[in-house]
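Deliverable D2.4 — example input (C-alpha cells):
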C-alpha cells in the first residue's frame, strides 16, 4: 500500500532531527518571549482567498479544497500566516494595544509537483509578530531566523531584502511594470503573458532565464516609494548593520503572496540547488483588515522544515538518548516479576527496554551491548524466588545482586550516573568507553566483580 504522492511518512530515524529542530527553535524563540500557537489544519476556503490573493498560484492551482457535510468550502491550510491572523482576531490577542509574539511548527498542503525539498504535505516553522510597525521589529525577527539557522549549523546562508511599499505605491509601480512588459509581450512565456493583467509582480519571481534578461532594464519598485516607506527600509538596513547581519538588496524580490507590504526578505543557500530559499517573510500590516478584523501591524517569516532538514542532516548527526536500563528475562514465565521495577524506572525518568524475546542470557547481554545500554537488569529464577535483582554495569564490567527492598536505594546513584554521562560525555564518548559484555554464569547471584 503506497502513501499519497508527495506525502511522506516520517520514520523514527528522521524524527530525532525534527525533535532537535523543534527544541532549538523553542529555546531561541522562548528566550525572545515568543509563545507557541497551534491552529487547525483546516480553515474556511474564503480565509485564504481573501488573504493570499485571487491571482496567486496557491489560490488558482495548489489548494486542497473540499465540501464538508454542511456544504461549507474547506481548505487544508497552504500556509500558516492567514490562520494565525484569524486566531489573533478571534481571541482578541492584540486588544488594548497589546503585542502578540507567536510561533508555530506544523504541516501545510499544496498541490505542487513533488521534487526534492518540495512536497504536497510539507512543514513550516514560522514566526508572527503582531502589534508594532517599527523597523527594529523587522530586524529582530530576521535576526531570530538567522539565530535558528546558525544554531543548526546551516552554512552559506544569504539574506536578500527589499521593500514593496504600500498598496498605493505598489499600484503605481504595477502600472509602470505592465507598460514595460507589454513592449516585450511576444518574448514572454505563456505564464508571464497571463500574469501581465492578473498579477504582474509575480513575473519578477520567474525562474525563466529569458524573463530575467527582459527584467534587467525593468523599473525598480524602490523608485516608486514615498518618504515613509523609504525611511522604514533605510532604518531596517541600519538595524541589520548594527546586528552584524549581512544582506543584499534584491530589487526584484516580491514574495508570492498578496498580503505583503513594505519589508520583504528571503534567506537563501546555494547548497539546495534550484530550491534555494530556506526562509521567506515580510510585513503584512493590512492582513487582519483583509479578513474582516481591525488593522494590526504585523511581520513574520516561514522556514521550510523539509529543506532545513536537508541542510541539518549534512551538518551533524543527532543521537537519541541512550537506553539506561535493559531488562533481560530469559524465561518469560518470570516476566511478571519485571513489573515490580518498571514503575520505579518510569518515576525516575530512566529510559528502559524490556526484552520479551525469551532468548538466552548471553544473547540478552549481546543485545544490551549492541544498544550501548548502561545497565542490564537480569531476572532469572533465583532472583524471582529470593526477591533479588542482579544489576550489571555494561561499561564497568561490574555485576552485583541486591535484595528487592534495596533496589530503590540504588536507583538515585544510577540516575545520577546516567544523566552525568548524557550531559558531560556525549554519545560518542560513551560509545568509545563501552566494552563488550562478557558472558556470565546464568546461576551467579552473589556480589561479583568481573
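Example output (designed residues):
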Amino acid at each position: 500500500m503506497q502513501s499519497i504522492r508527495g506525502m511522506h511518512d516520517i520514520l523514527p530515524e528522521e524524527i530525532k532531527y525534527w525533535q532537535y529542530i523543534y527544541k532549538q527553535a523553542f529555546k531561541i524563540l522562548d528566550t525572545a518571549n515568543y509563545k507557541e500557537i497551534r491552529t487547525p489544519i483546516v480553515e474556511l476556503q474564503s480565509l485564504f482567498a481573501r488573504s493570499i490573493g485571487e491571482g496567486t498560484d496557491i489560490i488558482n492551482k495548489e489548494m486542497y479544497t473540499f465540501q464538508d457535510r454542511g456544504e461549507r468550502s474547506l481548505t487544508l491550510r497552504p500556509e500558516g500566516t492567514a490562520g494565525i491572523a484569524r486566531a489573533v482576531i478571534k481571541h482578541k490577542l492584540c486588544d488594548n494595544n497589546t503585542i502578540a509574539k507567536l510561533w508555530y511548527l506544523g504541516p501545510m498542503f499544496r498541490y505542487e509537483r513533488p521534487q526534492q525539498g518540495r512536497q504536497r504535505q510539507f512543514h513550516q516553522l514560522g514566526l508572527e509578530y503582531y502589534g508594532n510597525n517599527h523597523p527594529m521589529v523587522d530586524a529582530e525577527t530576521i535576526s531570530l531566523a538567522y539565530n535558528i539557522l546558525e544554531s543548526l549549523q546551516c552554512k552559506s546562508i544569504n539574506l536578500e531584502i527589499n521593500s514593496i511599499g504600500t498598496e498605493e505605491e505598489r499600484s503605481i509601480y504595477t502600472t509602470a511594470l505592465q507598460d514595460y512588459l507589454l513592449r516585450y509581450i511576444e518574448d514572454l512565456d505563456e505564464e508571464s503573458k497571463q500574469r501581465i493583467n492578473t498579477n504582474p509582480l509575480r513575473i519578477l519571481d520567474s525562474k525563466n532565464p529569458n524573463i530575467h534578461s527582459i527584467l534587467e532594464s525593468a523599473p525598480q519598485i524602490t523608485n516608486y516609494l514615498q518618504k515613509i516607506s523609504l525611511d522604514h527600509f533605510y532604518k531596517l538596513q541600519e538595524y541589520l548593520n548594527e546586528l552584524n547581519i549581512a544582506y543584499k538588496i534584491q530589487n526584484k524580490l516580491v514574495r508570492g503572496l498578496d498580503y505583503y507590504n513594505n519589508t520583504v526578505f528571503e534567506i537563501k543557500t546555494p547548497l539546495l540547488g534550484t530550491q534555494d530559499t530556506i526562509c521567506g517573510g515580510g510585513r503584512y500590516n493590512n492582513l487582519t483588515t483583509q479578513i474582516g478584523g481591525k488593522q494590526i501591524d504585523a511581520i513574520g517569516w516561514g522556514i521550510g522544515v523539509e529543506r532545513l532538514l536537508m541542510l541539518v542532516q549534512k551538518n551533524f548527526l543527532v543521537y537519541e538518548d541512550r537506553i539506561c536500563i535493559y531488562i533481560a528475562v530469559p524465561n518469560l514465565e518470570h516476566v511478571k516479576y519485571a513489573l515490580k521495577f518498571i514503575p520505579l524506572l518510569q518515576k525516575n525518568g530512566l529510559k528502559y527496554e524490556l526484552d520479551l524475546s525469551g532468548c538466552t542470557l548471553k544473547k540478552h547481554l549481546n543485545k544490551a551491548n549492541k544498544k550501548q545500554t548502561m545497565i542490564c537488569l537480569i531476572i532469572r529464577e533465583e532472583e524471582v524466588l529470593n526477591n533479588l535483582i542482579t544489576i550489571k554495569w555494561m561499561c564497568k564490567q561490574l555485576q552485583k545482586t541486591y535484595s528487592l527492598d534495596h533496589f530503590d536505594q540504588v536507583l538515585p546513584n544510577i540516575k545520577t550516573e546516567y544523566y552525568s554521562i548524557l550531559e558531560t560525555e556525549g554519545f560518542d564518548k560513551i560509545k568509545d568507553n563501552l566494552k563488550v559484555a562478557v558472558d556470565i554464569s546464568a546461576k551467579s547471584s552473589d556480589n561479583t566483580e568481573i
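The mean pLDDT is 88.
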